[in-house]
């Protein structure tokens, strides 16, 4: 009978290990910050460089899932092509085996000294960078500590004949181990944790090398299913890379099962130590798979683009504001800017509909304006929250200025949409009270709407291109709007003095002019927010 202490040791060790992987990975991402973008986007369709970078980054942050999620963000932001991301993904698979290698070296004895150093650095450091380094060391100490408990529980299990027989009960059908470890990896959401368990079982001589290698194949397949799980949870996000990842691992596992005796022999000759053999087998699987796949990347890209089921990215609301990108602030800012561009487009559409309400008497369109404005409220909240999260990272001066700029732009777009809604409601009141403006007044409003439309189109272009010249054009147009409004006000007062305009009609006209002028002011504020970025470049 398996003792309860052994179960607690195993599950407690897994919990500590998983937390250690998370803490060290997150802390190292904070330390690397915006450098991750520069590193990951240097592949330039060079497969060897992509493999090397993917391996190195994942070895540091110890999460292939995190690396792949960042890759998706880069592809979405236009910083990386799908074809250049595949070698990095293959490298990430290789890098994910670093935890297995560490486990096989039996260096858990260093857990407490590393914990002591990490806590000391974190407590007594003033700089954020040093505190993050301390956190990373604490994470590594937990990783080692978790390994210790897993190895201790495996040793206890080896003394229990019932447990050993149960684990080896499928030895006549070893493919079952692939299935079991696939499910376990999916449940734990960590291929590193399950691979450590496999190494521990091998070191304790509970399982032999062939069974361990079949388990390792399951670990790799499970890592792909973990990404597929993310796809389902996020309704399609990561689709191309997720499909590629699962296809390559299914093909890889199938090939290795067919040629398993050669795989078994290759792993066995790498070391005389059981733990090292398993760890080396894990690494060899990913290296060999990467070497086989790399020459066929162009064909894989064509196949995925042609046959993979595509999801409508426009339906993936706010999926681009991924928390995984926060530790690459420049990319996270691009994603926030992407949302702000959508806000600018919706504000432009609101202005267009508002004009139609007035000039074409389509009062039923107010509901559409209100729906857009409600959506703007939601987008403002989500994007503002994301920008605050970005502000808590290590930012370069350039990124910091862009962050402040985007915060101001988000607020101005929200206020701009509020003004458009206010104007639209005034137009509805005019129609309800059967108030008509003079032909001259309507002509003046048409001129203002025309200028505002030009400004809104320029706002969208400025946000897309980060173009200083276009920002200055917005400012010039806003000055022209002020001139037109001032002249229109003068004409309006003259009409009132001549008795051509009633007090009630004049009140409505003045309110409409005021709101239209404010719409121009907010577009002008957006332009200045962009101009301010260039003062620090």
Instruction: Give the SSE string.
Output: HHHHHHHHHHHHHHHHHHHHHH
Number of E strands: 0
Number of helices: 22
Q: Helicity level, as a percent range? A: over 70%
What is the 3D form? Answer: elongated
Q: What about the largest sheet?
A: none
Give the oligomeric state. Answer: single chain
Low-confidence spans: pLDDT under 50, at least 5 residues?
234-238, 311-315
Straight-line N-to-C gap: 68 Å
How do the strands and helices of this protein lay out in sequence?
Blueprint (H helix, E strand, L loop, with lengths): L3 H29 L2 H6 L6 H15 L2 H13 L5 H14 L2 H7 L6 H14 L3 H30 L3 H7 L7 H14 L2 H13 L5 H25 L5 H20 L1 H9 L5 H20 L3 H11 L21 H31 L6 H26 L5 H36 L6 H27 L2 H30 L5 H32 L3
Question: Can you walk me through this structure?
Answer:
The chain has 537 residues and is mainly α. The protein has two domains: 4-309, no CATH class; 328-534, Methane Monooxygenase Hydroxylase, Chain G, domain 1 (Up-down Bundle), CATH 1.20.58.220. Helices cover 80% and strands 0% of the residues. The protein contains 22 helices and no strands. The termini are far apart. 45% of the residues are buried.
